[in-house]
Specification:
Elements lengths: L3 E5 L4 H11 L3 E4 L17 H11 L3 E4 L6 H6 L1 H22 L2 E7 L22 H13 L6 E5 L2 E2 L10 H10 L4 E4 L7 E2 H13 L4 E4 L8 H11 L7 E4 L19 H5 L8 H12 L6
């Protein structure tokens, strides 16, 4: 059954994939504050009147809320900005969803956890964020919980294609440096679950079709440090991974605190008969092909 679905942050890395995947089946509308794409509605998600006006005019039945500031360091430097983009926009979208009878699908983060559990985290685990980013994403979860039939989707670190108007990702920068014969230092301490944003969008589409509610963890079950991740991508691109240099744990004082291992368990996803997204080992070649040599000078 086709539905009218709103995707906020639709010009971002995840939002653009969600827009494309859902658009194959549903009537999908996209928001973007800064994009010049004619197909997207220019809406400022921090502006309550613009949010309300859009919902009143277009009456979406579902809203996938991807607007966020995911830069952990930027959030730490500017807590007001972080709260405005991660929490306040969610509060306004949640209010509009509740008033107009729309289901809210909120994109949250592994950073709501402190990463100290050796067994990882389930949907019922108690959040304990260590920094501004995680705290503001948790506030977004709290606003979302007030919307009937909501779905909060916690994600790990994502990778995807270039985003127009934004600086190259660390992956593009790394591949470009390797192509130029330059060495690159990468963290070899913090273990993550790097997941392709396209695969996340595919799982989200199924979760929406099956009308899932509550909290859901969506993450590959392959753990990698950034260094190990970089090696796999370099090899998939046919570039010399020998130029990559592993860096041990950074000093405690170097930037905002990061959870050492905020592992998202996906037991609920699997109990529902949905496989977790594949890991980098399985997806590296396809992902590099999807870049189309975007890193090349």
């Amino acid at each position: 059954m086709s539905r009218r679905i709103l995707v906020t942050g639709a010009s971002g890395m995840l939002g653009s994939h969600v827009l494309a995947v859902l658009g194959a089946k549903h009537d999908v509308l996209g928001w973007s504050h800064g994009s010049d794409r004619a197909s997207l509605h220019r809406v400022d998600a921090t502006n309550a009147s613009q949010v309300e006006r859009f919902f009143r005019t277009h009456t979406p039945g579902i809203c996938v809320h991807c607007v966020a500031s995911p830069d952990v360091l930027a959030c730490e430097r500017d807590p007001d900005m972080a709260d405005r983009l991660n929490a306040q926009t969610t509060e306004q979208v949640a209010r509009a969803c509740a008033e107009h009878g729309a289901k809210l699908v909120y994109i949250s983060s592994e950073y709501v956890f402190d990463g100290t559990s050796s067994h990882g985290y389930t949907e019922d685990s108690q959040p304990r964020p260590l920094q501004v980013y995680g705290t503001t994403k948790l506030r977004g979860e709290e606003h979302t919980a007030r919307v009937p039939h909501h779905l909060t989707v916690r994600l790990p670190v994502l990778y995807g294609g270039p985003v127009p108007g934004r600086k190259p990702t660390w992956i593009e920068a790394m591949l470009r440096s390797l192509e130029q014969g330059k060495s690159v230092e990468l963290d070899d301490h913090f273990e993550r679950q790097p997941t392709w944003s396209y695969d996340v969008a595919t799982v989200l589409a199924r979760a929406i079709d099956e009308e899932l509610e509550g909290i859901l963890h969506v993450a590959t079950q392959e753990g990698l440090t950034k260094y190990a991740w970089g090696v796999k991508l370099a090899e998939a691109a046919g570039l010399p991974s020998s130029l990559l240099r592993p860096v041990p744990a950074p000093p405690e004082t170097s930037g905002p605190r990061k959870p050492a291992r905020p592992w998202l368990n996906t037991h609920r996803l699997q109990q529902l008969g949905i496989s977790p997204p594949p890991g980098v080992s399985e997806r590296a070649a396809a992902y590099v092909r999807s870049l189309g040599g975007a890193w090349k000078t």
